Amino acid sequence: MGTRRTPRDDPRRAGARILDTAEGVIIALRRCTLNQAFTSLVQTAKSHNVAPLSLADALVAIAEGQPTDDLDAEAVRVAAQTWGPMLEGNRANGKRYAPTSSGQHDIAPSTPADHTGRSAPGRDE
């Protein structure tokens, strides 16, 4: 009997997962659509002459706070220059992912304010 390959064993699937994750990071940062995130990733890669997958890998590593030593140095530089300030801004402002009432995830400030930025009722009045 032959061995059955799973999606995790397939390097093409691993690349697709990195691209999917990078798109998710861009969506969270820019509050854009999936298509806009993909276009942003591909256009940024093209304009800086780096492979989209290398750029996606660098973005995910930076977003996760993982070491980037074994990644394409130019892709890491481009990802840090393009999206790094937004990632650092979210961390500095204390933003975190939080579920919304619909069950979807939203970026929520760590201060007691609603999603419009106004103070929550009963606070700071």
* Oligomeric form: single chain
How large is the radius of gyration? 18 Å
Termini separation (Å)? 71 Å
Domains, number: 2
Measured by DSSP, the beta-strand proportion falls in 5-15%
Give a count of the beta strands, DSSP E runs of length 2 or more.
Answer: 2
Uncertain segments are 96-125
| Number of contiguous helices | 4
Content-based structural category? mainly alpha
The strand line-up of the biggest sheet is 1-2
Write the element-wise H/E pattern from the N-terminal end onward: HHHHEE
Q: Give the rounded overall mean pLDDT.
A: 76
Largest sheet: 2 strands, antiparallel
Please state the overall shape, judged from the principal axes of the Cα atoms: globular
Give the proportion of residues in helices.
40-55%
Structure description:
With 125 residues, the chain is mainly α. The protein folds into two domains: 10-92, no CATH class; 94-125, no CATH class. 54% of the residues lie in helices and 6% in strands. It contains four helices and two strands. The protein has a two-stranded antiparallel ribbon. Strand 1 and strand 2 form a beta hairpin. Helix 1 crosses helix 2 (34-47) and helix 1 crosses helix 3. The longest helix has 20 residues, at 11-30. Residues 96-125 have low confidence and may be disordered.
